[in-house]
Model the fold of this input.
Amino acid sequence: MQKDFLDELGELALGSRLKRLSEKVLSDAANIYQDFDVNVQPKWFTLLALLHRKLRVNVVEASEYLGLSQPAISQFCRQLADEGLVSFVTCEQDSRRKVLTLTPRGREEVNKMLPMWQAVQKAAEQLCREFENDFYRSLRKCEKALAEKSLQQRTAEAYNELYVRP
Amino acid sequence: MQKDFLDELGELALGSRLKRLSEKVLSDAANIYQDFDVNVQPKWFTLLALLHRKLRVNVVEASEYLGLSQPAISQFCRQLADEGLVSFVTCEQDSRRKVLTLTPRGREEVNKMLPMWQAVQKAAEQLCREFENDFYRSLRKCEKALAEKSLQQRTAEAYNELYVRP
DNA sequence: CATTTTAACATAAGTAGTTATATAAACACT
DNA sequence: AGTGTTTATATAACTACTTATGTTAAAATG
Done:
């Protein structure tokens, strides 16, 4: 008795399959944070890592770097400020901009997370290379291919080939 | 000026990367539905396809087949019933169960969608095979590998190797 | 067969974001 | 300098689910 209908749908359910896997990985990540007694929310991870690396970024910049919406960063930013991990000052040259930085406590928390990140990195790297072809590399290639031509356009073309000009 | 921080994070951000790609694919799918003037919501897709294939399933069964929560199916089911696409009757052998089926209109709508699905299938299949290795196959392998040993456990092991027993 | 446990479904509340919209600052043009 | 347009951020409302919980029916057990 097979109970995974996505297997039957195959590539047609590519999106659903990707979503399901991403949720599995992200929920595992949340558990890992718990294992390591890290009291920051997993959803803040990419923003914290960005601030660790870049030191100073404003809201729109962060949203571009991370591929999230501007309101998402705005919200995370408030939450992180409430936690005392991030502070922000109005940009001097342009008072519309809000420049984010880690607070000393934020830097401390990130430093405590670094060994955990190293371990996740190693585990994920090994996972992706477990098969004959590197999954992470395929993933990036797929992203790139879709950026060049969307699934929407590919589908329109496939439809033409199948039904209009067969 | 590179603006994708996930590239810098590499495998550490595997979950975020998968999520971003799944959202891209699913939002493309929504656009495709629009292109084809199909007036059913993309989120119903897997359930409609399941009912098309299996004819009769109950709520819990559907949630298992699709990997969604039972309340999710419950909600979709109500929405689809409101649209007149799905009907349900109480199971005779077990009055707790609700057996879902497509209505005649539901079957009609699904039949209208079949050519579109064929086109998506073809486009997605070509996309996945565009590279030297089949992305969809890697994806399934990765799922399977994680089902056998979670990223959480892999990370614990990697941590030991890196810091405890180096 | 009375009672506890388990299973199926519905409903409520919560979450991690999104899109839409408002506000205010900066810029471009006259 | 005044006016219209664009940009940065905040806020509100929405979405597609989730977890938690309640209700009722079925099954298991003493």
Summary: The mean pLDDT of chain A is 94. Chain A is about 65% helix and 5% strand. Chain A touches chain B through 78 residues (CB under 8 Å). The first helix of chain A runs from residue 5 to 9.
